[in-house]
Write a structure and sequence with these properties.
The protein is mainly beta and 237 residues long. Helices cover 9% and strands 45% of the residues. It has an eight-stranded antiparallel barrel with strand order 1-2-3-4-5-6-7-8.
Length: 237
């Protein structure tokens, strides 16, 4: 069954619940550096583009990209493994008239919607990497995967809040002792078939695992490390 938020009497989407979740995540991001783990924590911003793949666009990457931006918090367990929380806001769109096959020309479906993306991801660094290191361990490619949810801001769609699986790859590097930057290309698999408003044929229970709705985000991020490692010895830098 699709996850839904409704007002009990009016049958409309209750926007207060997802907004409370947004504010809670932002609050946790803001207070996280004050914890005992602040020496291993980075905070940052992300900006880039999102694009959609699904019933309208089945094969074309970077189709109709739209702006996406947000915030992130990363906790570095060790030079190889990190846990990242991010919140992104963006939009996606598609139009059957952009494709030349007869079926889509006859269907002539189109959509444009804004969305919120919230997920928790693990990162694995292919090279040992520590934020703030400039002479060694200063850059690495990495892979990332995790789970989260996507909220489509369209009250006319049922099941507009969806579980998502995320996966991708990127590259990050240190710029100074407190600032690092990087690029990432990631994909999101949704499990309620509601991004484009077009449903795959079949019974309702198959929507969780059998649908074509994906979206991708390509972006650049900049992170800031509030405290350097207090016990580092300059001789090993």
């Amino acid at each position: 069954m699709d996850t839904q938020f409704y007002l009990a009497e009016e049958g409309q989407v209750d926007f207060y619940k997802p907004m409370r979740s947004i504010f809670l995540i932002i609050f946790l991001i803001l207070i996280f550096p004050a914890s005992n783990a602040q020496r291993k924590t980075d905070l940052g911003i992300i900006g880039g583009a999102a694009y959609y793949m699904g019933e309208v666009n089945m094969v074309r990457h970077f189709y109709n990209p739209s702006p996406a931006f947000g915030a992130m918090a990363r906790y570095n367990f060790n030079p190889r493994n990190s846990l990242r929380l991010h919140v992104l806001y963006g939009s996606i769109k598609g139009d059957d008239n952009d494709f030349n096959n007869d079926f889509q020309q006859a269907r002539a479906a189109s959509f444009k919607t804004s969305m919120l993306d919230m997920s928790l991801n693990m990162e694995f660094n292919f090279f040992p990497y520590e934020t703030g290191k400039r002479r060694k361990d200063k850059y690495t490619p990495y892979a990332t995967a995790g789970m989260g949810y996507n909220h489509v801001f369209d009250p006319d769609r049922q099941g507009s809040i969806a579980l998502i699986f995320t996966g991708g790859a990127g590259f990050k590097m240190n710029v100074t002792r407190t600032i690092s930057t990087g690029v990432e290309w990631s994909f999101r698999k949704t499990f309620n078939d509601q991004l484009d408003g077009l449903e795959n044929p079949g019974p309702d229970y198959t929507r969780f695992y059998h649908n074509n709705d994906w979206y991708s985000i390509v972006g650049i991020f900049v992170t800031y490390k509030f405290l350097r490692y207090l016990y580092e010895c300059p001789a090993y830098e």
